[in-house]
Structures are given as C-alpha cells and as structure tokens.
Amino acid sequence: MGAEVLTVKISSVQAVALAFVTYFIGLWIKNRVPVFQKLSLPAAVIGGLPFAFILSGLRVYGILQVDFDNTLSTVALLVFFTTIGMMASLKLIKYGGIALILYLIVSSILGFIQNLLGMSIAGAMGIDPHYGILAGAVSLMGGLGTSAAFGPYFETIYGIQGATTVAITAATFGMVVALVLGGPFGEFLIKHYKIKTPGSQHIDPKTTPNATKNIPESEADNPAAAQLEPHVFDMSILEEEETTDVNGVLKAAGFVFVAVGLGAVLSAYLNTFITLPAYIGAMLVAAVIRNIGDFSGMYRVQGGGLNVVSEVALTVYVTMAINSLKLYELIHLALPLVVILIAQTLLMIVFAWLGYFLLFGKNYDGVMLGVGGIGFAMGATANGLANMQSLAEKYGPSPKAWLIVSLVGAFLIDFVNAIIITWMGTW
After folding, report:
1. Counting beta carbons within 10 angstroms of the beta carbon of residue 201, is it exposed (0 to 12), middle (13 to 18) or buried (19 or more)?
2. CB distance 365 to 196 below 8 Å
3. What is the CA radius of gyration of the chain?
4. Less crowded by CB within 10 Å, the N or C end of the chain?
5. What number of CA atoms fall less than 13 Å from residue 217's CA on the CB side?
6. What is the pLDDT of residues 75-132, one digit of tens each?
7. Any idea which UniProt keywords this protein has (predicted)?
8. Residue 36: CB partners within 8 Å, gap ≥ 6?
C-alpha cells in the first residue's frame, strides 16, 4: 500500500494572499521579459499558470495535494460582476448603440454554434450529445459560474453522468486557452493589418525632436506607456470622473455589497423559474440601483471609487482562479472531449477574426472586441477584460470596446445563453 499523499489546506485568506503574491511575481517577470510584453500576456497568467502547473504535477505524482478554500474568490466574482451591473446605465447603453446590440446578436450566434459543434462531434464519436453542450456554451460562453449551475441541472434532468465535472474541466481548459490566446491574437491583428492605435496618435519624436526631451526613456520608446492604466469602467466617455479617495471607495463598496446581499434573494427567486449563475441577481439589483440614482439625482454611483473596487475584485478573482486550476484533470479527459475542445478553440479563432474583428471594422475597437470576445466566449468576462487591459497598457484604451464587452460579456449574454442552453438541451 503506497504512502498517503500529503494534503495542505489553503484557507480563504491565505488563498487571497497567495493570489497577490503570484500576481506581483507575474508583473515583475513581465516587466523583465520582452517576449511577454510583446505577447501582452496578463500578469495573472505569467505568475499563476506556472504555479498551477507545479501543483498539478505534485498532485499527479502523489507528492502533494493542495486544497484551496475559494470562498473569497466567489465573493470577488460576485463583487466584480456587481460592479459590471452598476455600469448598466441607460446612458451608457445608449452610448453603445447599434454596435452593442449587434455584438450581443453575434455572440449569441457563437453560443449556438458552440453547442451545435459540440453536439455534432459528440454524436459522431458515440457519446451523448449533451456532453457537447457541456463542452460548448455551458462551459465556454458560460464559464465556471454557468458550469457550476448547469452541471447539476444536466445530471438531474437528463441523467448525464459526471456532467458537472465535464463542464468545469472544459471551462478550466477554456480559461487557460482564452488567457494565453487573447493577447497574442490581438498583437497579430494589430501588426498584420497595421491597425492605428491610440498610442500611435501621440507626438512623433522624429518630426518633433524636442517633444521627448523631458520624457523618460521608457515612455519615449513606448508612447502608450505614458497613459494611465485603463479602468474596467472608463466612465469619462460621458462625464468627468470623480476624484478617487477613501470616502469614494467606501461609498462604491457600500452600494456594491448592498446589491450583492439583495441580489442573493433575487437569484434564489429567479432560480425557481430558470437556472442562472449566482451573480445574475446581484447584477440586476446593481443596475436598478445605478439607474435610480441616475434619473432621480438622489445619489451618484459612478466614479473612481467604483473603478477601484472593480479592478481589485477582477485581479483577485482571476489570479485566484488560475492559482487553483486543477490542470491534472485535463489529463483524464476522454478523447471525444479533447477533440471537442480543440475544435472549439479553432472555432473561436476563426470567429474572433471573422465574426468580431472584420464585422466590426478593421480598427482598434474591432481588435479589442475580438480579444474580449475570446475571453468571455471561452472562459469568463474577467479573462477577456484582463486580456484587453494588457493590450491597452501597451497601445492605449478603447472605451467603447470596454463598455460593449463588459455589458454583453458579463451581463446580457448570460440571459440569452441560459435560454440557448435550456432550449438545445431538449433536442
């Protein structure tokens, strides 16, 4: 009888601390390795993915098993998507205009094709087509939250054995691929199509010799580096942003956590009618709070404080998710599931090129919409925004793309996706 595997339990607080450590290690490495900057890989990937590989290797060889308490990761997820809900001002939706509606329609078509592709391959390889849905829009367009919600649903309603495990494993695969693929794909589009970026609109030192006289060398070489790091919510497109201070952050956090609490009640009620991710209720409540304030003038939600809350939650959630990835589960994927996931990856690359970039114009907004689409259509909106942020740090922000991807990827698509999954599950 072999020796028992040493098990180490990481508490929720320790998991958050570890997330910050791996994130800043990734940031440190990225700043010193030019190829990572060229590929625009997120710091969370650079620091967290090798850590997850090491833990998975130790687990496979029976040396060490690390169990993470991801309770606070769930809280970070709820907080992040609640801030997305508070972005759903009718003013902003109006600003998104036809492009936002078209992006939602195109993304819904992608979810349908993901299911159709998965079901076709599953059926051709002799397994239940429902596995194709689980490795389609449930895990990819839906992400971990939708996987956790619909896995038990498929097990109960359709008797699909191991549905939750398959969905979460596929979502894990999708998250890794989305994070690794997004930045380089955006870099390819910018270089191949010679896309004009916000950074390229700065003063040209060749035509204005003294323009960079007092600019640090790093910023002169990379004009976009002189820009402020883009916010998840670039609200300056509509009005002047509030100064960020302690009171502003506390006010924003107060609105967010009230929405999270009330949203839990609403989610419990909605789930009696349709299966939705846990954060939907909080997002709806947040949207109501936001618009009441906008139209009544009694209070103001928008501001720098909300940006801080959102960005911290985004960093914590994404890094914690990567740190705790059970990559060893991918080793045990059945051949049909491997084939489905490879096909889904190829579909995503083609669709991001044809369905997002070319359709929305061969411009910087189109690049960002494609990169963001890869993120939320193969894992989570947070992944897409992380990839977009990495590109924006180098080339400059794209406020309209940030708005559209945030609203569609984290809010509107979840409702449509739930309907598509439920409908195609009856086929």
Report:
1. exposed
2. no
3. 21
4. N
5. 0
6. 888 898 788 788 777 776 777 778 889 999 999 999 999 999 999 999 999 889 999 9
7. Membrane, Transmembrane, Transmembrane helix
8. 29, 30, 46
